[in-house]
Amino acid sequence: MAILNSFALLPASPPSKSTPLSLFTLGVVMSLSTGLANVSLKYNSVGFYQMAKIAVTPSIVLAEFIWYKKKVTFSKVVALTVVSIGVAIATVTDLQFSLFGACVAVAWIIPSAVNKILWSNMQQQENWTALSLMWKTTPITLLFLVSMIPFLDPPGVLAFHWSFNNTSAILVSAFLGFLLQWSGALALGATSAISHVVLGQFKTCVILLGSCYLFGSNPGTISIIGAFIAIAGMSFFTYLNLRDKKQQPQPGLQVSSALPKSKLSEGNGEIRDGFGTETV
Q: Where is the Sugar phosphate transporter domain (predicted)?
């Protein structure tokens, strides 16, 4: 992003109402979300990590209700429940964890949910673009990630063997991580925090089924059934979102109230709208 900024390729920050405190909060939450997730994978099994990941969905629903009084319809609750059950069946094969790892996983759920909510709201309500918001918050995130290394991952970077191959792999991974963060931010700005979580779970199911189809891996019949159950719930959730979007009133069609009333209509106790219809 610094390279893009040096060539003036980064979009300018919008004249929004974002305060330095809100940007600082988002940067700190991002560092906690990323750092705790990696530490959770270090001390817990993948199955336990997936269980904690599933818990992010109800956490987002609860947080948005507390902060923004945003309610989720019963149909969407059913769809999200089916998705969570399907992902659990597909991915949770073992639940090995340590006490420290379990505490880290539980502590990761809240900042992960808050991170998605803040990203989505700042882009949609304050007109931030994905890259400009990343440019403002990444230095803060980097600072707090470095400060957490001695406490969560000692001795961390100092004990790593920095060979040419390892360094090249890390740089490639970092570039792919940038693309992943960018695409995730674009998705959060275009949809919502809950939809972003569902999208991530869809990716998990696609990886599981794709590895089975393309590379002949055998995750087990139960896991495959769980993946299809989750995809069915995701399809239903997507259908509900699209239906709600179509049912929202279109501002461009509500022009009758702004049109002047006909004198003849007013005299007869009638009002004509701009499309020639009459109401008494």
A: 21-235
User: What are 8-61's pLDDT values in tens digits?
Assistant: 888 877 776 667 888 899 999 999 988 888 888 888 877 777 778 888 888 888
pTM of the model: 0.73
- What residues contact residue 98 under an 8 Å CB cut-off, 6+ apart? 43, 44
Among 173, 40, 217, which residue's Cα sits nearest to residue 111? 40
User: Tokens 């995730």 appear where?
Assistant: 184
Q: How far apart are alpha carbons 165 and 182 in whole angstroms?
A: 26
The label of the residue with tokens 């759920």 reads 109
Any domain includes 118: yes
Q: What is the dihedral of CA 80, 230, 39, 116, to 10 degrees?
A: -40
Q: Alpha carbon of 253 to those of 73, 246, 247, 256, 262: distances in Å?
A: 26, 13, 13, 8, 20
